[in-house]
Design brief:
With 280 residues, the chain is α+β, with helices and mostly antiparallel strands. It has helices spanning 6-19, 23-35, 68-88, 115-118, 220-224, 242-260, 266-277; strands at residues 3-4, 40-45, 50-55, 59-62, 97-101, 106-109, 122-123, 140-144, 147-152, 157-161, 166-170, 178-181, 189-193, 196-199, 205-206, 212-213. The protein has 3 domains: 3-88, no CATH class; 97-224, no CATH class; 242-277. α6 (242-260) packs antiparallel against α7 (266-277). This is SHOCT domain-containing protein. It comes from Novipirellula artificiosorum.
């Protein structure tokens, strides 16, 4: 359970006094409304008659179906919480990733792991943020199998991890809405955007330092625009120095990792490998 900030604690105390409820009951409902994107809640607490549901604008359900006084009390509290959350929300309640693999399993999530950095009523748990800190809070997160995603539309970045290294992609002009992974772990990873279904390996890979890494960089910006440009091949330079040879070998290792994770194809790897080896 995330910790409340000073603002959050003050809000809970004010609402508890205003509605005649305990601190625990108000805190429980605060988290329930937040998890419902600020507009709905599923709750279960003795002071609300057990389990129930609330939706902004007209629906309140409690276990005691004919207890209209309790319904009104829940509705008033949730409405106050919803308004407070909207006031303190730093990142819009925008959506989540819907990830689905071929076997049908999926995971969907708001950016709950960054609840503190997304809303000033909570204290962020930095240990749950596996993506580069300079990106701030993601608009949405998701996971399937052992792959996790975090999407940062403001900076056009997508972070992906399999539990070890974090790969950062330039999302170009895509508005990403979901992911799918074929044939289980290690299979090709696709994402959906306004352009349809796109292979993740077509996005440029950006290192944490912001330096592009070897990958198949298919510029969707150019693909969807009406203009195009001709790129002349680079002239062949002199043989690589010893330090340059080490850089080339390190690049080959990174390419091998991309291929093993399914981010580039065998053909793409072989083409880039031949290009790099020709410089030795």
């Amino acid at each position: 359970m995330p910790n409340l900030s000073d603002e959050g604690n003050q809000l809970v105390q004010d609402l508890a006094q205003r509605h005649g409820l305990s601190i625990d009951a108000v805190t429980h409902m605060l988290l329930a409304v937040y998890n419902g994107n600020g507009t709905m809640a599923q709750f279960s607490h003795p002071e609300f008659g057990g389990s129930g549901q609330w939706m902004r604008g007209g629906m309140t359900m409690v276990s005691d179906l004919f207890n209209n006084q309790l319904k009104c009390r829940v509705d008033n509290l949730c409405s106050d919480i919803s308004n407070a959350l909207a006031t303190h929300q730093r990142v819009p309640f925008s959506g989540s990733f819907q990830s689905q693999n071929q076997g049908g399993s999926s995971a969907q999530s708001q950016a709950a792991g960054t609840i503190g950095s997304a809303n000033s009523l909570f204290v962020a748990d930095a240990s749950s943020n596996w993506w580069p800190s300079e990106f701030g809070p993601p608009a949405a997160i998701g996971s399937q199998n052992n792959v996790r995603y975090a999407y940062f539309p403001a900076s056009r970045r997508l972070a992906v991890t399999t539990g070890g290294d974090v790969w950062v992609y330039d999302t170009l002009n895509h508005n990403i809405g979901g992911f799918s992974q074929q044939q289980g772990v290690g299979g090709s990873i696709n994402f959906t955007s306004q352009f349809g279904t796109v292979d993740l390996s077509t996005l440029p890979v950006i290192s944490p330092a912001g330096v592009p890494q070897p990958s198949k960089v298919a510029s969707v910006d150019n693909a969807v625009s009406e203009s195009s440009c001709e790129v002349n091949p680079s002239p062949v330079g002199p043989p690589a120095s010893p330090s340059g040879q080490e850089d080339i070998l390190a690049t080959l290792d990174r390419l091998g990792g991309l291929k093993e994770k399914g981010y580039i194809t065998e053909e793409e790897f072989a083409t880039k490998k031949a290009e790099l080896l020709s410089r030795l």
